[in-house]
Design brief:
Blueprint: H1 18-21, H2 31-44, H3 48-61
Helix pairs in contact: 2-3
Length: 75
């Protein structure tokens, strides 16, 4: 191995996988949800958006499903 390399002659190119890494989306979240993740993120020392992404990634990895069936009120 050389001790030094001349990188000035290298041609740069875009990373072909960069677009697949993360995608920007717009979501409407409740203030209490945002506060919850911001507080937790501050405790852990990570950005809250990264924390939300980690949580959602965990849901995907564990195939977690949500039950959104609403119970009817009985009177």
């Amino acid at each position: 191995m050389k001790t030094e390399y001349d990188l000035s002659k290298m041609k740069s190119r875009k990373n072909p996988y960069a677009a697949k890494l993360k995608k920007s989306v717009t979501m409407r979240l409740s203030e209490d949800v945002i506060s919850y993740f911001k507080n937790m993120a501050e405790e852990k020392g990570v950005p809250y958006q990264s924390l939300i992404n980690l949580y959602l990634r965990d849901c995907v990895a564990s195939h977690r499903k949500i039950d959104i069936s609403w119970q009817s009120s009985t009177r």
